[in-house]
């Protein structure tokens, strides 16, 4: 038994944020029915690909985002497609979509229509800027999203342009936030038997997110204070990212505790200079630079794991910057059973990030690999009790390109 065993989700999302929302539900037991257009989710065309050869069934990104789901190909622009979706929605607990605002209404599948077909189901709409407001029709990218609503202003070197988090981290964070909101809607409908419409803007998940944006926005609003980019290693003793024997380590807020730093260093002679202990002089850029010249040599003589171990012993906030290879081979992740394996028809055996957390019961489980495009169309439509002639017409309009 899993926590969401009795929950059916009609998934009309695509790309990253929406599919990550529904992935989290699927991984904890929900029956997630992924509706794809005949060409498939756009994520199927995003890498990395097996052997670096683009193929809609060999995308590592799509594979990860769509584990435990079933794929149904439906052309939503046809009457047959609309009827099929409404029939599926009538049996679902949640309908989740990530089209541009107004698209579902144009397709005849807006909230009022879904609610009429199934009053107990909630509908979650995920869009760039929300369903209303002056920005609702604007497009966005990961860069624009993090610049507009994230903490990009304070990310990067002091004398360089701002930067963003790596890869598509912002979209994954938005997907996790949307999943939490979705669970709230599900809980509410289970309690009172009435579904609700949840309007989620990707930007709002970052305006109020955990990545410092809410704190810095409030600070600017009330005091005019702007967060500064201070990511270089010359702003504290220590502070920022330092090279070491086999990579890099990051020290955060460590300079607040000079005695802990000395303990971590095991009290070398050079760190006993009184000017390094003076709380006022410790903010002098010249003294900080001099201290860091000693500390840099200390780091370069040690590996990131050796530095990390010394920092933990002395209660200094420090973390190694692991490569993907480091993480894959890490003893802790291996020991915790974080990595999972499955076999996919096109990818073969795949080892991938598994459970995000451990439940006492009802937790994460792998039931099936990511689906091939349209792999479950007939199976799902027959389960829903659609008329055979309607199923044939849906399949004819939604035929997967060769």
Any overview of this molecule?
With 402 residues, the chain is of the alpha/beta class. The chain folds into two domains: 8-211 and 335-397, Crotonobetainyl-coa:carnitine coa-transferase, domain 1 (Rossmann fold), CATH 3.40.50.10540; 240-323, formyl-coa transferase, domain 3 (2-Layer Sandwich), CATH 3.30.1540.10. The chain is 37% helix and 14% strand. It is built from 16 helices and eleven strands. A six-stranded parallel β-sheet has the order 3-2-1-4-5-6, with helices on both faces. A three-stranded antiparallel β-sheet has the order 7-8-9. Strand 7 (240-244) and strand 8 (247-251) form a beta hairpin. Helix 1 crosses helix 7. It is elongated. The relative contact order is 0.14. The model has no long low-confidence stretch (mean pLDDT 92).
Q: Which stretches of 5+ consecutive residues score pLDDT under 50? A: none
Order of helices and strands: EHEHEHEHHEHHEHHEEHHHEHHEEHH
Domain tally: 2
Shape: elongated
The counted number of beta strands is 11
| CATH architecture assignment of the largest domain | 3-Layer(aba) Sandwich
CATH topology (fold) name of the largest domain: Rossmann fold
Helix % is: 25-40%
Under CATH at level 1, the class of the largest domain stands as Alpha Beta
CATH homologous superfamily of the largest domain? Crotonobetainyl-coa:carnitine coa-transferase, domain 1
Class based on secondary structure composition and strand pairing: alpha/beta
Tally of separate helices:
16
**What is the makeup of the main sheet?**
6 strands, parallel
For the residues shown, what is the average pLDDT?
Answer: 92
Radius of gyration: 25 Å
């Amino acid at each position: 038994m899993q926590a969401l065993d009795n929950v059916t989700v009609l998934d009309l999302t695509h790309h990253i944020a929406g599919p990550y929302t529904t992935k989290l539900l699927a991984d904890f037991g929900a029956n997630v029915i992924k509706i794809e257009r005949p060409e498939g989710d756009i994520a199927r065309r995003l890498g990395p690909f097996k052997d670096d050869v683009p193929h809609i069934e060999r995308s590592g990104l799509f594979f990860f985002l769509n584990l435990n789901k079933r794929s149904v190909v439906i052309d939503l622009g046809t009457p047959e497609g609309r009827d099929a979706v409404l029939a599926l929605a009538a049996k679902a607990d949640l309908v989740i979509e990530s089209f541009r605002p107004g698209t579902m209404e144009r397709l005849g599948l807006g909230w009022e229509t879904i609610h009429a077909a199934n009053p107990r189901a909630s509908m979650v709409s995920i869009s760039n800027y929300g369903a209303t407001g002056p920005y609702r029709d604007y497009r966005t990218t990961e860069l624009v999203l993090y610049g507009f609503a994230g903490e990009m202003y304070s990310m990067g070197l002091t004398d360089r342009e701002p930067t963003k988090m790596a890869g598509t981290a912002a979209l994954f964070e938005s997907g996790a936030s949307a999943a939490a909101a979705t669970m709230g809607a599900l809980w509410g409908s289970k309690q009172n038997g009435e579904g609700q419409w949840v309007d989620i803007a990707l930007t709002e998940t970052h305006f109020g997110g955990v990545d410092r944006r809410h704190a810095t926005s409030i600070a600017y609003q009330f005091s005019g204070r702007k967060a500064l980019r201070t990511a270089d290693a010359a702003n504290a003793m220590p502070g920022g990212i330092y090279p070491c024997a086999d990579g890099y380590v990051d020290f955060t807020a460590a300079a607040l505790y000079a005695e802990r730093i000395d303990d971590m260093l095991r009290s070398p002679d050079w760190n006993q200079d009184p000017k390094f202990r003076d709380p006022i002089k410790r903010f002098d850029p010249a003294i900080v630079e001099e201290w860091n010249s000693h500390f840099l040599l200390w780091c370069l003589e040690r590996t990131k794991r050796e530095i990390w171990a010394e920092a933990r012993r002395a209660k200094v906030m420090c973390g190694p910057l692991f490569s993907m290879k480091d993480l894959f081979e890490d003893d802790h992740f291996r020991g915790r059973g974080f990595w999972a394996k499955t076999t996919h028809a096109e990818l073969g055996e795949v080892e991938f990030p598994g459970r995000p957390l451990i439940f006492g019961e009802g937790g994460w489980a792998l039931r099936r690999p990511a689906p091939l495009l349209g792999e479950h169309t007939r199976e799902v439509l027959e389960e829903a009790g659609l008329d055979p002639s309607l199923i044939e017409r849906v399949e004819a309009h939604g035929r997967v390109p060769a």
